[in-house]
Fold this sequence. Notes:
two-stranded antiparallel sheet
Amino acid sequence: MKPKNGKTPVMQLKLYDIMVGRNMTVAQLAKATGLTEAGLYMMLNRNPRAIRLDTLGKICSGLDIDPNTLLELRHVEVSK
């Protein structure tokens, strides 16, 4: 994707914000999705460069949300 007005598009995972809004723990999310707590912690504590589509599907299904709620496209300044 080309930078827009000198800004680069970046997908942001809003999983942490959703979990806080629902007062949900990682253990509860792991149980709801079938994903491991370790894998979820890695997604929450790091900015993952890639997430498998089936993982996104499990998270969306476990939280009863669609991908538009989980992901946000932002345009950020890139320093040279």
